[in-house]
């Protein structure tokens, strides 16, 4: 008989849920080994960590949301329909009538307006996402209003309604049971302290137990409006060491291990364990600072695209961790441009440099985070670029050292990665395709400004136009065209998109892990 290695996990399994406790993981309960000590807050108005994002997604709903059935589609959530008025800068939502909080309270329009206003008034870390809409503590009650079963959202700024909808699909826009939350208000905190230990959502799971850095237990919500989860519940057991996670999985004491290293993934040998790979939102790139004269000719940028050994790296040093992707918006989300026209071709690169009259060799310092796989990637780039006379001098540093140089624009070449703040293509377009003021005192947290690339005004205008375009399909096509342009004409060479591997028992199916922690869904999981 299988034995559990954690007394805490054993006690959690003994809690009544849908049937008697078993010595092995019960058929209706998914047991996950995961490092969950990153959690600082679970209140949706404050939660900003990876694991807390997963919890918020499974405990709460939003007016509109990406969901387990297809994480690439923005679907109705607590709203069944909405009407947009781009000219008046309003979106009016009609709420569904069958949504119920875990407390038993009906989801009301007042819960929606109160939840959104609460984020702005508390002004915790993720509040900036909603504040983009022009909301302030003084104005939000006038800009987010309700009447009967409808909620009207007003926003300021030249935004496409599609952009606004994606903002409203972000984590801090989760709707809480305001009646329950405000019952637990302390010293004007709008229930923040209580909601960081409890939950008050309407999502597919309710929170049954939360012990920071130890364990989270969720119970299926049988009344969920999209259908009850297929499992009775799940346990996220804190297991910090990847080796221990592997041991528990191989012994059958857990159903899933979330933090195995590539080497451990490769060493799994049991026929009863499978590994699933999920694309992630982070894109990895090589960039050239335009303050370095030898790196300013566009021919250098073009040649560089043929000097990355994409396949060589994905078949070895980043196997399972990254896949080839050459555009700034990650694959798997609306508006992505998934063409990969560049491959390792040093002869073509040398021809491009020769025809442009570029004298080689060129010596360039390359800043890189001193950790795997980045140092290995830098060494691969050093070897492949040397074939065309571009010689990298690798400068390893801590993450803070590398990023500080990047923000100061004092690097020459940089190997780094970028992830969106929320799932709208503008989040990355503004970083990779927009820079209207390249002066040193006009700091912007973008790859373009940090690499001192004065983006051509035509491309700046394309970025502004896509942000304001009201036709959703036309808007996505504009972003694809923008990605194609930057793929061809930018000193920023996007190479890869991160991947995430999850090992699980072969009898587990239906697990969905989208491109960010906000897209981890357990509702469709089954154990056969």
TrEMBL record:
InterPro entries (alphabetical): Peptide/Ni-bd, SBP_5, SBP_5_dom
A Pfam match: SBP_bac_5
All copies of domain Solute-binding protein family, residue ranges: 75-439
GO MF, one annotated term: peptide transmembrane transporter activity
Residues annotated as signal peptide: 1-23
Keyword Signal: yes
Subcellular location: Periplasm
Coiled-coil intervals, chain numbering: none
Keywords, alphabetical: Signal
GO biological processes: peptide transport
An annotated GO cellular component: ATP-binding cassette (ABC) transporter complex
Stated family: Belongs to the bacterial solute-binding protein 5 family.
Protein name according to UniProt: ABC transporter substrate-binding protein
